[in-house]
Known about the structure:
The structure is a single chain. By secondary structure, this protein is an alpha/beta fold. The chain has 15 helices and 13 strands. The chain has helices at about 5-10, 15-30, 50-60, 65, 75-90, 105-115, 130-140, 160-165, 185-205, 265-280, 285-295, 305-320, 340-350, 375-380, 380-390; strands at about 35, 100, 120-125, 145-150, 170-175, 210-215, 235-240, 255, 325, 330-335, 355, 355, 365-370. The strands form three sheets. A seven-stranded mixed beta sheet has the order 2-8-7-6-5-3-4, sandwiched between helices. Helix 9 (about 185-205) links the parallel strand 5 (about 170-175) and strand 6 (about 210-215). Helix 3 (about 50-60) packs across helix 11 (about 285-295) and helix 6 packs across helix 10. The longest helix has 18 residues, at about 185-205.
Amino acid sequence: MINEQMLKLGQEPSSIRELFAYGLERKAQIGEDKVFDFSLGNPSVPAPDAVSRAIGDLALLPPATIHGYTPAQGAPAPRAAIAANLNERFGTSYNLNDLYLTCGAAASLNICLKALVCPGDEVVVVAPFFPEYRVWIEGNGAKLVIVPARESDFQIDVPALAAVLNENTKAVIINTPNNPVGVVYTPQTLRELAGALRDASEKFGHPIYLMSDEPYRELVYGDNVVTWVPSVYQNTIVCYSWSKSLSMPGERIGYILVPPELEGAREVYAAICGAGRALGFVCAPALFQKVIERCVGEPADVDAYVRNRQLLTSMLDELGYEYIEPQGAFYLWVKALEPDAAAFAEMAKSFELLLVPSDSFGVGGWVRLGYCVSDKVITGSYDAFKALRAQYA
Ligand code: PLP
């Protein structure tokens, strides 16, 4: 007898990963340039030169000084550098003891969930949501509660969210800029959400934590500003990673910030250390802790994503597709041309267009395109999008 829940997860890979694997196979069969793969959120912008230089410099140091275990919460110097960077940008006064370094945002969220969730707890997400939230929430023993986003603009529907809060609600997870819709939550939305969470925490007699999942924080376009969520809601835990902002998702480096203002901050931090230990993470990759110490101030390069967004949206405008204009991240949320998103994505596949159907994001009728691809993939896909449109004329 083995764990049924894990067996099921292993036997049913994520729809995104499955499509990505299909794309690799198809490219091998018919050629790279004939498959238009919009499936995965693997950044197309290269990691900055400063990252390559830091890796090169660090590799020349005596091995004993770079490859060893660090303290479980991360080495002091990188944590201090991250705290200083946050303080400079957000006018806060964090220190290294508020930070716990992780193997990316996936680890940050799992560690937080493991640290917070007790039997019977519920965790709320806003649909459409990143599909792995279901896996992480249920994998850590909580019940997933889904609240649809506001239809008009994909902001959080705060009254609807407030209506599902109850004595079992442990946390709400938000993601801004958002995967998959690209929306950035306005200060007004976040203030209303904070009000609802404060009211419910008081009513039910325990804090409801806000887990702010922020791997796209720096990938924001034009005048849109990403609010520093802990400045709006005291009981916020920030889950961050450099996977997207510095284009190094394979290196697995991120952090959890437990602001000192959070109720019971030291106990929560200790539980996070306990959860990291129980999950066997040991410590975040030592080399990349040092890379971040040197590169924490590096700006994210959003220009290529701005150009890709423009290229893709003007093409889809011309062909008559409907989509949500992204304010950040690098995904386009496009209305499927039939109610069944999976059937539409299958039809797209017949034109070698790989689009992720919306069902695993918790809603029907849409597809997600990751435009973190080379511009050739976008321009090359024109005929395929045209042919797909023609199927529904
Ligand atoms: N959260 C969201 C919304 C994501 O889109 C992703 C990755 O695509 C993650 C978390 C996981 O990021 P990481 O690579 O840092 O684990």
